[in-house]
Amino acid sequence: MTRVTVPTPSEGVLEVELDNGPDNLLTMEMCRELTELLLRPPAGAHVLRLWANGSAFCLGRERAGTSPGELRAETKVLVALQRALRTTPLVTIAEVQGDAAGFGVGLLAACDVSVAVADARFWFPEVGIGLAPALVLAWLPRVVGERQAFWLTATGEKITATRALELGLLNAVVGGPDELTKDVDERVAALRKRDPRIHTEIREMLHAGRSLDEDQALELSIDRLVVGSLRRLGQNATTGKS
Predict the structure, then answer these.
(1) Which pLDDT value is given to residue 64?
(2) Whole-model pTM?
């Protein structure tokens, strides 16, 4: 049975497991479940830790549609998940224990933090089936630049975890599974020491700034800083802190 396993939050952390055979292909149902969870997380949830069962993290998604209507509906589900990853109030961490391809790379790249084992490989296979990966190209150039985005999608070249780190697709690369668990444990602990509200505000500012030039982003920062400072002063007055 294909599924997204979501246990009850433990100390503010949601551990979400992908489990769909050796390739961990995302189904439309799995995408909808993840989207719903990201947009409407349970009370008290702060960090979402995404990992996969098996040797591969996620080698893409299942393709079922054949008619124009079906293909459009499928694409809208995928777009909704990408948007949810960028707008969720949760801090998202991808724990990448194996290879990722196509939409699987998009999944980990859209998370706030992604850590992978050194022997993981990353690629975009769509060119091999005669398809220009339109959804990938909506976000990939912003991360790696147009030249790298063209090369990766035009050739389907597999890159190492170290190269993915250099390109900005990952935050860190670790030696193996034990180091991966330890690294992500430490990152979760570091995040949990901080106020979830501040993390939400940071994510909102990053999201708002994506479509702005530097001057516009600086102007936006004025109101954001004033509101944040007033909120902090109000909290300190309530708690008696200086």
Answers:
(1) 76
(2) 0.85
| CATH number of this structure's domain 3-192 | 3.90.226.10
pLDDT of 79: 92
DSSP state of 55: S
| R_g over Cα of the chain | 19
CB 142 within 8 Å of CB 118:
no
Q: Can you read off the two tokens belonging to residue 34?
A: 């993840």
For 50, the token pair is: 């995404």
Residues 86, 236: Cα–Cα separation, whole Å: 31
Calpha distance 139→109 (Å, rounded): 9
Domain boundaries, the chain: 3-192, 196-239
- Residue type at 152 in one-letter notation: L
Host H or E run for residue 92: strand 91-96
Predicted pLDDT at 230: 64
**pLDDT tens digits along 117-146:** 999 999 999 999 998 998 899 999 989 999
Name the percent of the chain in helix, strand, coil, to the closest 5.
55, 15, 30
Four-residue CA torsion sign, 181, 182, 184, 188: positive
Q: Which amino acid is at 36?
A: E
User: Helix (H, G, I), strand (E, B), or coil: what is residue 114?
Assistant: strand
What phi and psi, each to the nearest 5 degrees, are found at residue 198? -65, -40
- The pLDDT tens digits of the residues spanning 65-103 come to 778 888 888 889 999 999 999 999 999 999 999 999 999
- In contact, 52 and 98? CB cutoff 8 Å: yes
